[in-house]
Amino acid sequence: MTAKQLLLKKIKEYERIIIHGHTRPDGDCYGAQFGLYNIIKETYPTKKVFVVGEESEYVSFVGTPDKIKDEAYQGALSIVVDTGSENRISDQRYKLAKEIFKIDHHVEEDDSFYANYYWVDDSLPSCSQMIADFYESYQDQLKLSFLGARAMYVGIVTDTGRFRYRGVNRRTHELAGMLLDFGVDIEDIDNKLSVDDMNSIRLKGEVLSNFVTTEGGFIYYIMKKEMMTKMNVSHESASAMVNNLAGIEGYPVWALFIESADEYRIRLRSRGPEIQQLATKWRGGGHQKAAGATLKDLNELDEFISDVEKLIKDEKSSQNK
After folding, report:
1. Euclidean distance between CA atoms 85 and 115, whole angstroms
2. Helices 3-13 and 127-137 sit at what angle, rounded to 10 degrees?
3. Which residues have C-beta within 8 Å of that of residue 108, sequence separation ≥ 6?
């Protein structure tokens, strides 16, 4: 039995299903959560299905998570999507369920094995693509509506950088096309994802005026709490500023260090060397070209920069051989 077949079997088996994602959810997390929710509810209207976790300002139009009590997990199936590491699962009550099913596209790490059942494929560019593929594979047995199709399309376009990142292939476009057939409005989605408020525009100017570069080809900006307060932007909006450091000639790796209560969260990106293992070393994880990590404090910054520069140097050396 394949992982997809097992997923369908478990969905049929359980009358209560709770869908979890990761902390600080992005478009793909919401796309996979609400896409799967829609498939199950459209197909089995009497089943009790919930989406739980944190709210996202960026993709709030996709859906709003449910608030449920602990009792809801009794005899239930927890499905965790788009979450490679156990410590990143939003709402740790997923453990209260009778069984846990993991659906993910991240490289597996030491704390990736937290479920009873797994469907993991790190060759795919988004988890929403996996959910769309699940629907298409069993569309003779499953139903889908506009809201679910829109959710998954949002997940695919955001996690692939509008179809620009490695991993995008013919199948990605085929499934995106299938979702468009449900009436998904590309222009409307692009407007929702692309329009910034004035505070974000001012913060973008701050980032572009004060980023730091290193001789080894690394470019970064340190986002202090005072700056986020001054500009009146959320942690989520501030995190998106990493994209403004992309595409600068001579700097194949870039990052945004975001100050939180007792650490610095790193949003790390690359168009050259693979960064997933580096992110894992620095208390994080993710993909080969897009990952997250953590510094305990800025005393660790120099060592982190050295690690990044070594990656860049090694990549250049391998290309010259």
Report:
1. 11
2. 80
3. 84, 120, 122
Angle at 51 between CA 45 and CA 55, to 5 degrees: 145
Q: Where are the domains of the chain?
A: 3-193, 198-320
Per DSSP (E only), the strands in 127-170 are: none
Q: How many CB atoms neighbour CB 93 within 10 A?
A: 17
Place of tokens 């305990």: 296
Counting DSSP H helices and E strands in the chain, the numbers are: 11, 11
Q: Which fold has domain 198-320?
A: Diaminopimelate Epimerase; Chain A, domain 1 (3.10.310)
Give the pLDDT means over successive 10-residue stretches in the chain (321 positions). Answer: 97 98 94 99 98 94 98 98 91 97 87 90 94 98 98 96 87 98 96 89 96 97 96 89 93 96 94 92 87 94 98 86 65
Q: Which fold has domain 3-193?
A: inorganic pyrophosphatase (n-terminal core) (3.90.1640)
Residue 207 token pair: 């980032």
Record the pTM: 0.88
| pLDDT tens per residue, range 218-239 | 999 999 999 999 999 988 889 9
Residue-wise pLDDT for 42-83, tens only, equals 999 999 999 999 999 899 999 999 999 999 999 999 999 999
Burial of 71 (0-12, 13-18, 19+ CB in 10 A): exposed
CA-CA distance, 48 to 181, in Å (whole number)? 28
Stated as kind and residue range, the H or E segment containing 236 is helix 235-239
